[in-house]
Amino acid sequence: MAALIEGVGKKTLNQLDYVGGLSIQLWASLRAMGASFPIVGNRYRWKASVGQMLQIGVSALPMVGLMAVCSGFILAMQGASELRRLGAMHYVIDLVAVGFTRELGPLLTAIAVSGRSGSAFAAEIGTMRVTEEIDALRVMAFEPVEFVLAPKYLAALIMVPCLSIAANVCGILAGGIFMFFSTHLGLGLYLQYVLTSIQLRDVISGLIKSLAFATIIVHVGCLEGFRVHGGPDAVGRSTTTAVVKSTFLVIVADVLFTAIFYFTGKH
Amino acid sequence: MAIISIRNLIVEYDGRRVLDGLNLDIEQGETMVLLGGSGSGKSTLLRQILGLERAHSGSVFVKGIDITRCSQPELRLVRRSVGVAFQSAALFNSYSVKENVALALREHTALAPSIIDLVVWMKLAVVGLAEFGHLHPQELSGGMKKRAAVARALALDPEILVFDEPSAGLDPIVAAELDELILLLKQAFQMTVIVVTHELPSAFRIADRIAMLYNGTFLAVGTKDEIRNSEHPRIRQFLDRVPGNIAKAPAVAASFEKYLQAQEANL
Predict the structure, then answer these.
(1) For chain A, how many helices (H) and strands (E)?
(2) Residue A42 and residue B108: Cβ atoms within 8 Å?
(3) Complex ipTM, two decimals?
(4) Do B79 and A141 touch (CB under 8 A)?
(5) Which has the closest alpha carbon to B30: B185, B194, B144, B181?
(6) Do B6 and B59 meet the contact criterion of CB atoms below 8 Å apart?
(7) How many Å apart are CA B160 and CA B70, to the nearest integer?
(8) Edge to edge, what strands does the sheet with B16-27 contain?
(9) Which of B86, B106, B107 faces A136 most closely, judged by CB atoms?
(10) Taking a C-beta distance cutoff of 8 angstroms, is the pair B211, B35 a contact?
(11) What is the pLDDT of residues B105-122, one digit of tens each?
(12) Angle at A127 between CA A124 and CA A132, to 5 degrees
């Protein structure tokens, strides 16, 4: 019994330590973020941010686009198979448009970015830890959070919402193609229906979620990297942990945000 | 006046005492070698001198500032006067050798790019790498990486130059070349040099004074001759390369006996 209580206590303390680490890192990165801004910040950090934007955003665009197209087709077909029996095929348009804008676009993007970039952040920083590069930065009077993390965070805050919008467009277009082939609804008319079914608050709630997901992915990935101790196997473990934890936390955050928007009458 | 003063320094890892109440003064312009076997605590002491880890108690004064208690801006200021060549070189792999050396110059000084290029060339020339600045760290040999790390450590003309195991992993000729480089740098720039090593020929070649560490305490601090003529049994064992009991038959038998007793107790 004592061992059980000790185990629970240890796990709880570990979780609190992790949450504390994330909070401290988030605060430090927000304070250091100014250095990554263009014009007013350090031009080398801004250059690093632009490089990260290309990696997080531009390189991920084909993958996110393809995932969104597939999901758009799936959602439209699944919705149509039920709604057709009720003679309410036009509701497929609302389902795809609202479903993507509020939910699927940000979520699919977050899962893709977590798998691609979250793991890369953990691997990069973990390797820097193992090869003493992080220590080298510190003794050269650089702050690792400002030098390594802040440019990634700024890039993710810009690119994840952009990717979400791209995913929304791809998913909704996939729904339009399905509607064209199944009900011969023209694409122009489909887009008109889409625009009437989506409201500005749907777009804003999706973008708020994207910003939260970007924060989770960057901070979990970087914290896992900063906490690497040992050799190359520890880097491998941190990479896996970063993806698993960030994906889990993204879904938990999604539930929380959806509940908040639902109960505050946003949806 | 001592440029570095260590007072009653105690470091513990998970309750295990690694450094036990160390006191040491390193005078300006001298070469202090921290000598000791594996696990003696010399790398831990170095990390304390560099402010990379938090001590359990005690103080480390660098240029009169207690770096165990000072603010982050003060610590950054102290660090600008310290150059470190890490055991693994810790060069930034994504940068060329030239960019590695230029990093601190372009971020911590207001020098024009053309002046930075000139300074970088001079630092690389000092370590014999003027022709190799365009290469990336992964394209260099072990000895060249260490020399590149020295060039980077010299970038801001530090008052204190620190070497962590400079000869580790190098053949005797390259190791001797590095020793000569350390002597040359000290002579040319009048810096305080701290070297952590367990290589006796290297230590006795470059040291003004030697601090001999064993199990987290100083066995002796003195000149080369004082250490060489010491009658302390542990120092004699280290200098005369007398093996310990760990690999001798009675010790192995005792250890095996202990293992069997533990197994029986578990049954």
Answers:
(1) 12, 0
(2) no
(3) 0.86
(4) yes
(5) B194
(6) yes
(7) 19
(8) B16-27, B2-13, B57-62, B65-66
(9) B86
(10) yes
(11) 999 999 999 999 999 999
(12) 125
